[in-house]
Design a protein that fits this description.
The protein is mainly β. Helices cover about 15% and strands about 35% of the residues. The chain has one domain (about 5-170): Beta Barrel (M1 Pyruvate Kinase, Domain 3). The strands form three sheets. The protein has an eight-stranded mixed beta sheet with strand order 2-1-6-5-11-8-7-13. A three-stranded antiparallel beta sheet has the order 4-3-12, with no helix packed on it. It is globular and about 40 Å long.
Length: about 180
């Protein structure tokens, strides 16, 4: 299976879900052009309340379509963008990649993974119990957060539905991603 962009989404308003588009423009150092989370500083409302000057490590939210498949098998119906992601992927083990991995999206855009998205209760507004399905607890008590990864834009470019994805790992030693 090839690594592919399944959908691209954005929303200019601070609502949870994103609107699917044919393409989006990623802008270096800012994020998705026209998206409410674009900016040099963190735009996430609860983060801004704590530190309005924090750098934006959450410019672009990526989620794997395989999570949608897993949720569908459990009776949940979730469409690309509905869980707040800007880019829905297929064929890339987003959660298994180390921090600092660069994803080459389409012809020129490049994002660098900064960390995991921490699932929030707003997922339950889509369907009751959805948030719990995006978190697993291992036998040692460690939480596995499955609701995608966050990134920053390092090279501007347009990203289209159906574009290919290239994965560039950072130099070793690799560091696991943590919530940002």
């Amino acid at each position: 299976m090839s690594e592919t962009v399944v959908a691209v989404s954005r929303n200019p308003k601070h609502t949870f879900s994103k609107i699917n588009e044919h393409s989006v423009r990623l802008i270096e150092g800012l994020g998705v052009d026209g998206d409410t989370h674009s900016g040099v500083t963190d735009q996430h409302r609860s983060h801004v309340a704590r530190n309005p000057n924090a750098p934006n490590l959450r410019q672009v939210h990526l989620m794997h379509a395989e999570l949608h498949d897993e949720l569908a098998a459990k009776g949940f119906t979730v469409a690309p963008g509905q869980m707040g992601e800007n880019i829905t992927t297929r064929g890339v083990d987003l959660l298994g990649l180390p921090a600092g991995t660069r994803l080459h999206l389409g012809k020129s855009a490049v994002v660098e993974l900064t960390g995991l998205r921490n699932p929030c209760k707003q997922l339950n507004r889509i369907q009751d119990g959805l948030m719990q399905e995006t978190i697993e607890k291992q036998s040692d008590g460690t939480l596995i957060r499955k609701s995608g990864v966050m990134s920053i834009v390092v090279t501007s470019g347009d990203v289209h539905q159906g574009d290919s994805i290239g994965v560039e790992l950072p130099p070793e030693p690799h560091k696991p991603m943590v919530p940002v």
